[in-house]
Specification:
Elements lengths: L4 E2 L4 E4 L3 E2 L4 H13 L4 E5 L5 E2 L1 H16 L3 E5 L3 H9 L7 E3 L2 H11 L3
Parallel strand pairs: 2-4, 3-5, 4-6, 6-7
Antiparallel strand pairs: 1-2
Helix pairs in contact: 1-2
Length: 115
Amino acid sequence: MKDPRQSSFAVLVSLATSLDKNNVNSVRTTLNKALESGHHRLIIDLNATEHIDDNGLTLLVDIALKVKAQYGTLALVGVRPDIHLKIEERESYELFRYFVEVESALNALQARGLS
């Protein structure tokens, strides 16, 4: 996971090749810090992510629910079809906004003030 990028309207977190039991706690800490610092628009870049296990999916849903409780937005970028299917199987699809590119997500959040 790269260090998060912050702007006045969103925090961008780029994940590594996997989100699983080995790194889920460090990702959770990073995302919770962003929320605790008052950011309610998060962008998670999954372009490099090839695998997400149940721990990773649970984290994404938990963070999405926290963001939603703050009337915010959690955008996922570059979601692979197999990961997208796992999200759909959990019936969590509506918790996220989906984008192909990071810049598209940043522009949408800024221009529309999506929340």
